[in-house]
């Protein structure tokens, strides 16, 4: 083999090694670009999801682990003669009519003049929520909000038999305006609970009476519900107001 052939052979080998190195470099560069893209996408997804979770009342906030254990089983906001099968709890259709549109509504501030009366007597109307503590420990319902209006527990209802058939303001037979009581489930005679504790596995009905600070709520409209059970974040739901009877 002459010198020229040897030089050509060496040059070919050198070029081949350079091509292999460039090929490996290209693969490494592609892998690094993919890693940066995945990392950026993950970071963006985290922040976007955080915004949507925080702003979306249709789901329970995943930022609070205790809220995952508080289940909304049922609710009743109808213009009905027996809310959630509570025969003593009635929302009155004649009382709940929008004066401008004549559309059915749940009466809040429009009934402020007689707010502590039952709806049939011109008072504010009721909402019932059925919730379950699906966690391992008891929770305590410190307060709650309906459309961002705060409602507290009515201690006058403690150990009092529920009776909302006739108006009896501040008797504890039903919660006062802008307050709520906690009802056990499964008893023919309903004695309202004497504490805000909801034990693990327990199912209760929350009876809320709208107050004079609550806006009137047109039926078939969304209602924001926030429950404060003592965690760092509120448990939030978006429910739909019911229809007329």
Topology, element by element:
Blueprint: H1 3-55, E1 70-76, E2 105-106, E3 126-133, E4 139-140, E5 143-146, E6 149-153, E7 179-184, E8 197-198, E9 203-209, E10 217-218, E11 222-228, E12 235-240
Parallel strand pairs: 6-7
Antiparallel strand pairs: 1-3, 2-10, 3-9, 4-8, 5-6, 5-11, 7-9, 11-12
Q: What is the helix fraction of residues, given as a range?
A: 10-25%
**Annotation field: number of helices:** 1
Order of helices and strands: HEEEEEEEEEEEE
> Which strands sit side by side, in order, in the main sheet?
1-3-9-7-6-5-11-12
Strand content: 15-25%
Structural class: alpha+beta
Biggest β-sheet strands, sense, barrel: 8 strands, mixed
Mean pLDDT: 78
Radius of gyration: 31 Å
Number of strands: 12
Low-confidence stretches: 41-67
Shape label: globular
How many domains is the backbone divided into?
Answer: 2
Distance between the termini: 105 Å
What does this structure look like?
This protein has 245 residues and is of the alpha+beta class. The protein has 2 domains: 1-55; 65-240, no CATH class. It contains 1 helix and 12 strands; from the N terminus they run αββββββββββββ. The chain has one helix spanning 3-55, and strands spanning 70-76, 105-106, 126-133, 139-140, 143-146, 149-153, 179-184, 197-198, 203-209, 217-218, 222-228, 235-240. It has an 8-stranded mixed beta sheet, with no helix packed on it. The chain has a two-stranded antiparallel sheet with strand order 2-10. It is globular, with a radius of gyration of 31 Å. It starts with a helix and ends in a 5-residue tail after the last strand.
